[in-house]
Amino acid sequence: MKFKALTAIAALVVAPGLALAQADDDNLVINGEIEAVTKTAAPAHMEDTGVDTIMSGWHFRSDETQALQMDDFDNPGMIFVDLGIEQWNKVEGEAGNSCASCHEGPESMEGVRAVYPKWNEDAGEVRTLAHQINACRTENMEAEPYKYTGGQMANMEALISSKSRGMPVNVAIDGPVAEVWERGKELYYTRTGQLELSCANCHEDNYGNMIRADHLSQGQINGFPTYRLKNAKLNTSHARFKGCVRDTRAETFTPGGPEFIALELYVASRGNGLSVEGPSVRN
Amino acid sequence: MKITLTTLAAALVATPLIAGEVAPASVTFGEYGEIEQSLTGQPGDPENGGLVMKNKSIGNCIACHQVSALSDQPFHGEIGPSLDGAGDRWEEADLRGIVANAKQMFPGTIMPAYYKTEGFTRPGNAYTGKAPEGDLDPLLTAQQIEDVVAFLVAQKEE
């Protein structure tokens, strides 16, 4: 090996976190009234990650894409919120109920998105928002569950998220959820597939950098469900996880399954302090 | 990385081992992660090496590296260092080692191992997200590795 090779290696040792120079400094204000927190100090549990500031994926998108999220008339995700309202009021299932029968208006969901996934004492499990919606459908309405990453689920998640926009993500990571959270953390750092890449390789070590034509963000989920210009529909977080794992040439996990529930809890907790943005707009 | 139709094509690229080639499991790495011996015994074709490096469904090296000689293809990534002048910085054996399995030279690197078929966590069937059917092919064939090495050796700035 040549001497020069050694100096080349030395030049590659760049401290993590320096990449953040490339997130922009714009401010997200929705409809001229909701001032979203899109950059803030990382939560305490991220102390040993080298990331001191957490940032919404909004910062890594173009000005044009960013603008679409700043006004509900321009945000294509809001069309799906309207569909969610129709679903909310529709009686379905053997029990003759709609969501409105028990929860009144969708405003009753204010603050709910911000704290999910969370522990459900009666069921003795960590529930994602999607699981809770389906639990109400099957147990309280005696209706068919929505497909976990399907359009109707995404619509309902968009409606419920929209009632928490601007509120800080605040999922609990201790107490009864601690074990699931640890499992999620382990998955986040596991290098999967034939490309041997972990979530952290791209979203912790390289956010701010370009990977081919994509500007890497921190892979936060405060904006979910997201309307993507690329596929012109609302996308759920588990569908996004599935796509990212698949892109490592790995066998993915099942949306709604225990691994992705754990991963969702962990990834959500890395966004504690950012505002709920769903439905957001991404490319 | 995300156009499934084109990435699927990658599954068709790998071919069975040809006589005289060193199989992925039989490759001998030197002290620093270099590979002295050619994987095929045949000279590499630098032009094809360049194609392998810029093609999204084959090597896709420019997803992470800027390479001026491949600037006819847009969107070079910035995850790894520029490969301009790689032939000045490294011997041929080093480059062969880096391309075959960069983790030998740079422990823990994000760069994938292109000539390796075992030791993965949840490997899939290319970009389908499904479990693999049978044994995995390496990401690049032995000859493609040699072609890429020939391309890199020719990247000189001095």
Main β-sheet, spatial strand arrangement of chain A: 10-9-11
Mean pLDDT of chain B: 91
Shape of chain B: globular
Structural class of chain B: mainly alpha
What distance separates the N and C termini of chain A?
Answer: 43 Å
Give an overview of the whole structure:
Chain A is of the alpha+beta class. Chain A contains 10 helices and 11 strands. Chain A has helices at 3-12, 63-68, 77-89, 99-103, 129-140, 151-162, 178-188, 199-203, 237-246, 258-269; strands at 29-30, 34-35, 39-41, 53-55, 118-120, 125-127, 210-211, 214-215, 226-228, 233-235, 280-282. The longest helix of chain A is centred in the N-terminal third of the chain and has 13 residues, at 77-89. Chain A starts with a helix and ends with a strand. Mean pLDDT of chain A is 93; it is low at 1-21. With 158 residues, chain B is an all-alpha fold. Chain B has a domain at 45-118 and 127-158: Cytochrome c-like domain (Cytochrome Bc1 Complex, Chain D, domain 2), CATH 1.10.760.10. In chain B, 31% of the residues lie in helices and 0% in strands. Chain B is built from 5 helices and no strands. Chain B has helices at 4-13, 46-54, 86-89, 92-105, 142-153. In chain B, helix 2 packs across helix 5 (142-153) and helix 4 (92-105) packs across helix 5. The chains are: A alpha+beta (283), B mainly alpha (158). The A-B interface holds A 1-2, 4-5, 8-9, 11-12, 190-197, 201, 205-206, 209-214, 242-243, 245-252 and B 1-2, 32, 34, 56, 60, 62-64, 74-79, 81, 88-91, 94, 103, 106, 110, 112-113, 120-132, 136, 139.
Summarize the structure.
The complex is a heterodimer of chains A (283) and B (158). With 283 residues, chain A is an alpha+beta fold.
